[in-house]
Structures are given as C-alpha cells and as structure tokens.
Structure prediction request, 380 residues.
Amino acid sequence: MDRMDHTDHLDHGARMDHEDRGPGGGDRWDGSDAFERQLAQLMHRAQQPAPFEARHREALRAGVRARRRVRTARRAAGSVLAVAGLGLGLFLWPHGHTDGRPTAPHPRPMISPSPAPSTSPSQSPTESPSAPPSTTSPATTTNSSAPARTRTPSGPPTATAGTAHGATASYRPPSATATAPAAGGTTAAATAPVSEPAEPSGEPSSTIGATG
Amino acid sequence: MEQTRAGEYDAFVAARWSVLFHLARLLTGGDRHRAEDLLQESLVKLWFVWPKIADEAPEAYVRKVLARAAARSARRRWWGERPVEQLPEVAAAGDMSATVAERSRLEAALGQLTPQQRAAVVLRYYQDLPDRQVAETLGCPVGTARSHAARGVARLRRLLADVIEPVG
Prediction:
C-alpha cells in the first residue's frame, strides 16, 4: 500500500509537473493544436476498466516460473560450455605445442656474393679428396666471378691465410677453408687436389678462390 | 523476504493493471491478446528486477519494456496487418455505444501507423511524456522521437478527421 501511495504520488507529481508546463507552456504542448488535444482526450477516454483477475495472476506466476527455469537452464548450459571449452583447450594444448615447431630451414643470407663456390669446396674436402674435378670446377668459377679477391692476396703464399680468414668472414663454410690455412702442412694431405696445383708459385690465387 | 516482495509486487500489478493494459492495447493497435501477452512479458521481467527498482519507478520500467517490445516484436514478426485505404472496422449505428465505437476507431487508426510512430504517439499523447522522455523510453534520439510523433499525428489527422471534429 505504501508502494501504491508512492507511485501515485510520483504519477501525480509528474502530471502536476506536466500541467505546470501547461498547454502551450512546455515542450509537449508547444505548437499543439485542437486536434492533438482532442487526440489526447480520446486516448484517455478510450480506457476501459480491466480488472486484474485470477487468471492473470496465474499466468504471471507461470511466466515467472518458466522464466526462472529458462534462466537456470541457460546458466547451467553456460557452465557446461565453459567447462567443455576449458577441457578442450587443455586437451589440445600439447598438440598445439608440438605442431608449433618450425619445420622449414632457416633462411640463408642472400648477400653472399657466390654461394656456389662456398658449398662445393666444403663438400670436396670432406667427401673425398680424390675428387679434384669438383674442386677445380668451382675454382675456375671463382676465378671468373671474383677477380678482386684473387688480386688482393697476390703476394706470397702466406697471404693465403689472410685470404682464408677473409673468406671465412664473408662465406659460410669456414671449417673446410679454415683447416686449410691452419693445418698448414696437413692441408697438403687434406687438400691434396688443392695443393697439387699449388706447386707452381702462380697458383695460390686459384687456391684462394677455391677456399674463398 | 520473498513474501514481502511478492506482496508488494502483487499490489503494484493489481493497482496498475488497468492503466498498463490500456497502454499495451494502444501500443499494439487494439490487439487485445497481443496486448495481454506483451503486458505479461513485461511484468515477468519486472518481477526479476523488482528488488532493484521497487523504490524508484516500476511503472516507468514497465512502460519502457512495453514500448520497446511492441516496436521490436512488430519489426520481427508479421502480425497479419495490411495497410488499407478504408478502415475495415466501421461502427454500426445501433449495436455499440459511442464510446466503444470511438475506441475501436482510434485503435484501428493506430493500427495503421508504423510501430515506432504508434509508440511515439501513444507515449506522448496518452502518457503525456515530453519529447525527451519519449526518446529515452524508445531508446532513440530526441529528433527521431519527435519525427515519429509528428508523422504519426499527421497520419492520424487524416484517418480520424471525421471522429475528431475540427474546432473553430
């Protein structure tokens, strides 16, 4: 009852506030004409008494119960979905970890001047020293491709080490080439095909090309 | 606690049922069954928020739910309404009182409006709400609400020209 008094008071207050604005005084009645006023009266007049019957009360109760059931079911379904999603995520977690490994090789640097000679000398000493044609063929290509390098260590054979180091810095396979100058005398056996042409004094340039 | 809540809720519904049902009926263009469904749906929603808004303005909440649901449901479903040139429900001279005939004519004319126009007109002229509150209730800008109401009234002016006689 208190509530009803409160709402009635609110309604009455709103109406009074509206009437304070009055016809032509507020934004509701601004510019209103006779038709609009009669339309408002007609809408109020058209109201017919509609008592709140027992069937309405029962329907409301049933509606509240149904909505409560729907809410409960929705909440339960949400919980089940959340748990299922969590479980699925945990189940798929290790697979996702293994699949995430990179399978492709690392990209090689594209700035090397000639990758062909760098690969072939690395293969030739390791695979078989008895395959001089493979080393000689890149040697010839190196000569043609990088004449500037062959020109720099044009001095004594000791410059071979310097050129070898330079080659190690710029090219990938340092192992094969590094052993050549570091081993010194041993390279004679390891790089037999390489050292064979080294017998003439003018040939170290080709050796450098092979290592470089 | 639950008993108190239910008692207050029942008292509110019993006291405001008639007004709210008439509002729902105007909002649905006179469809009695749809108005009952709409009002019941709104009051069920009110039940679940009753503890929060019982001390504030429960009727304003129901009004907002009613108006928005009326506009939304009319957009979502087709209720078999067809716009016609002539109003189909013409009151016979002797079988209905003048008030009932007037009401039927009003509801039929309201049924010719779009749901948004009808809601704006009803809120403005039946609920006596200013434009700002109409817009707030419908959830649209003030200019839009004003436009809906103006177009609705313009159409009602044509439809109800013989019911509401021009004064002066």
About this structure: Chain B touches chain A through 50 residues (CB under 8 Å). Chain B has a mean pLDDT of 85. The two ends of chain B are 59 Å apart (CA to CA). Residues 2-77+94-159 of chain B form a domain with the Butyryl-CoA Dehydrogenase, subunit A; domain 3 fold (CATH 1.20.140.160).
